[in-house]
Input
Amino acid sequence: MKIRAVIVEDSRLARNELKELIKLHDDLDLIGEAENVDNGVELIQSERPDLLFLDINMPEKDGFELLEMLDEVPITVFTTAYDEYAIKSFEYNALDYLLKPVSEKRFGLALEKVRAQMESRNNQSKAKKLTEGSQIFIKDGESCWLVKVGDIALFEIVGNYTRVYFSDEKPLLYKSLNQIEEKLPEESFFRANRQQIVNTNFVEGVVPWFNGKLKLTLTNGEEVEVSRRQSYIFKDRMSL
Output
């Protein structure tokens, strides 16, 4: 199981030290780094990593402010040169706290905690997964539906709601797309971009699009643009 990690740290030296430690562990995959909070938030929201190595003391905004800006927080390990932040860090549910400079042994102990947390999350996620035959209840205004998950072609963000496409209906569900994605069967549903999840069983056309992206046409006539990063994953998954 690969653990997808990002680093948010203003010091280039500290980032390089962490990258060298990460290289020692085959199950860690560094997918990005940022040198300030705003870039870090953008990175986390776009890549949705499993693990965040986060510096606390950064210019303008600190690591605690970054966590408060996120809707969904990855497993977080704080890194800092100032140990007085330790108590406060655990108020933010950090998994661990690493004091710079970080030793190989101390990094390894933190990673053991990360692995245990990942295993726990995966087991919980599997227990909650829906199947294509599962039914979900949707109420939009005065209308109600009991819909099979496998009959849903598309989920799409609309403000604070998610629009659900099935048959000729498009009701709104008061749940976030991330909440929905966690429960969907991975074999048939695919996160095309930050706004949409498609049921691959409803894809009837795939064409190359701009900047390495793909454009999907669904059997209901809806068109979905797959982000560049997700396009690579989609091609591999569909053996294109």
Remarks:
- The chain has two domains: 3-128, 135-237.
- The two ends are 24 Å apart (CA to CA).
- The mean pLDDT is 90.
